[in-house]
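Comment thread on ticket #2218

A.B. wrote:
> Attaching the input chain for the structure job we discussed in standup.
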Amino acid sequence: MTTSAASWRSDPADPSVASARERALRQRSEGRVRIAASAFGGVTRLTDLAEGGALRARLPRGGPGLEAVIVNTAGGVACGDVFSIEVKAGPGAHLTVATPAAEKVYRSDGLCADIQVRLAAEAGARLDWLPQETILFDRARLRRRYEIDLSATASFLSFEALMLGRLAHGDAMGEGHLEDHWRLRRDGALIFADALRLAGPMGALLARPAVAGGNRALATLLYVAPDAEARLEEARALLDGARCEAGASAWNGLLCVRLLAPDIETLRRDATSFLMAFRNAPLPRVWAT
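C.D. wrote:
> Ran it. Output below, let me know if you need it in another format.
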């Protein structure tokens, strides 16, 4: 299956949407990676790997199932960049995908970076999507879209964290643009749709009590599995004592955890503790490097 990161763009009249020629003149990065794995005799093995542009996949040994680490050799995301990621866990496979470090989205002169991610897990598969946090610099512009397709008997866990601004470097988030779109389907039926859009004076928007209450780090965990709703009380118990503002809810065969924190260190500490306990397994080794 071929994925185009540009196929979902909005109105061409939007000045942040650049033509192919404009992107070429700016020498922006493009990256594509496709990973697929299937189970053979109870062992998960790689069945497909395709790489292009600035994205690469590495397969460290050890741990349960198969672990893939996606590397952006461009060193970050700049305005006008286009990235496409496609991951599939075949029947019975256990696949974990991570990144080696935080992804940095740099200041833009007007163009949005586009990232599209397509994830799929077939019957009896387990897919864990565990990238490290994304950090938006002041005046960064980012659009991301997630399309997730699951079998009714698959298990899926994702964790996505965002840090708006680099407070440790005195770089507060002033202006910027962020769009995050999620569409999750089980056996073809849409069971989760989520959209976040922050544009303009990001710092002022985040300060609003109904938006983030002054917090700059936010994260969402999704767990979709036959036992997802039954694990709600377990998830809430694991959040007891967290320094983050956190909450968990479950419906329609999925569990959702939201976290807000003033800084990424606080969020990461609470999230790491939660993920290790909830998964009953260590995090990918790249999280500790």
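A.B. wrote:
> Thanks. Noting for the ticket: Residues 1-18 have pLDDT under 50 and may be disordered.
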